[in-house]
Amino acid sequence: MKPLIKICGIADLNFLNEVIQINEINYLGFIFYENSPRNVTKDLLNDIKRFDFKDKRPVCVFVNASSEFIKESISYFKDPLLQFHGDETNQFCSSFKKDFWKVIHVKSIESIDRIEEYPDASAILLENYKKDQFGGTGESFNWDIVKKANFSKKIVLSGGINVKNVDNAISTQPWCIDINSGVESSIGIKNITLVNKILEKF
Fold it and tell me: Considering Cα of 23, then 38, then 111, then 143, what sign does the dihedral take?
């Protein structure tokens, strides 16, 4: 079965207007983390408040953020999905009464055991482990781990997915593939031509 597709790290209204036209994309991710070059600006948020996401669901990405910051940020969106990248507990992630994805940073096959800590997650996003770095590493982990493990949850595969390796990512048969830096012409700058090129592989 063909995986669903998420384009993450959208920080520009022009790109958002372009990517919303592409039928094959299911989720659009927005990062709320100051240390990220893709951090959402207040200007973009104000535009988003009036934006029609059509059949695509916005995903709001947080890293160890406060409840207040999360509530304020998601208030600009209609029915957003939340994605937690930090050390958040299942209880904290559930407290917003929204569908959420929890990120597990994969260091080894044992990392997969942490999925059981998040029984309320609607999906688990697997990403490369890098010491002291929460996501956005642009590097992939050993995807053979995904083929070997038995998952109790829907799996979103992330980490350095680009036009050269997306075939390998698809072959692991994840529920969804999360693409970020692999469709950028420079750090934080998404390129619609690169998006269309990678979509040809699906």
Answer: positive
CA angle, residues 178, 179, 185, in degrees to nearest 5? 170
End-to-end CA distance of the chain: 10
The DSSP-derived string for 81-101 is EEEE-SS--HHHHHTT-S-EE
What mean pLDDT is predicted for residues 62-83? Answer: 97
Q: What pLDDT score does 133 carry?
A: 52
| Three-state secondary structure call for residue 4 | strand
Q: Which of 165, 193, 190 is nearest to 9 (CA)?
A: 190
Which CATH number does the domain housing residue 92 bear? Answer: 3.20.20.70
- Vertex 65: Cα angle to 81 and 46 (nearest 5): 60
The reply to whether the predicted model has a pTM over 0.70 is yes
For residue 47, what are the domain limits? 4-199
Predicted local confidence at residue 100, as pLDDT = 98
Closest CA to 40 of 199, 188, 156: 188
